[in-house]
């Protein structure tokens, strides 16, 4: 039998949805982040739910609709500084707190997101 995916461990799509909705409500309130995001985050949140689903080992919802993620390239239009990467991760940690995401899944997911966030940094501090 195959090992359970992180996606299954945390409770599938409904859990990803709650996490992402809270995450973007945090982003909206973060002074370092909201200026570079669209005012209406509906479509951004929809794509992030698709992406995180596949990132955590669930169905390939993002790629099925949008093709290869090419995340670094897709972020190049936005000035992503180290400060913004830290801010992004802190909005995610707060969202994880709010949904009471359980260990050890939480630690493992944060680890992977931290690596990806580092990789998105594309500009020096403004
Ligand atoms: C899109 C910022 C890290 C996944 C975006 C957008 C911004 C942004 C401004 C465009 C929103 C829009 O136009 O709809 C940031 C910043 C980060 C960061 C400041 C800090 C490091 C990440 C990480 C991931 C991620 C770590 C993945 C785990 C995505 C996805 C999209 C997106 C999937 C939608 C791409 C698309 O349009 O198809 N991000 N991001 N981002 N971001 Fe990030």
From TrEMBL:
Keywords: Heme, Iron, Metal-binding, Transport
Cofactor(s) for this UniProt protein: heme
GO MF terms held by the record: heme binding; metal ion binding; oxygen binding; oxygen carrier activity
Presence of keyword Heme: yes
Regions that span the bilayer: none
PANTHER family associated with the record: TWO-ON-TWO HEMOGLOBIN-3 (PTHR47366)
Recorded family membership: Belongs to the truncated hemoglobin family. Group II subfamily.
Protein name according to UniProt: Globin
Lineage of the organism: Bacteria, Bacillati, Bacillota, Bacilli, Bacillales
């Amino acid at each position: 039998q195959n090992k359970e995916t992180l996606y299954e461990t945390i409770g599938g799509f409904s859990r990803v949805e709650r996490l992402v909705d809270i995450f973007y409500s945090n982003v909206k309130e973060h002074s370092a982040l909201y200026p570079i995001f669209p005012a209406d985050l509906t479509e951004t949140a929809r794509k992030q739910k698709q992406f995180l689903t596949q990132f955590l080992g669930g169905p390939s919802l993002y790629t099925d609709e949008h093709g290869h993620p090419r995340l670094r390239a897709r972020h190049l239009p936005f000035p992503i500084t180290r400060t913004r990467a830290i801010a992004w991760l802190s909005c995610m940690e707060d969202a994880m707190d709010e949904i009471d995401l359980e260990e050890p899944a939480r630690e493992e997911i944060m680890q992977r997101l931290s690596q990806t966030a580092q990789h998105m940094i594309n500009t020096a501090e403004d």
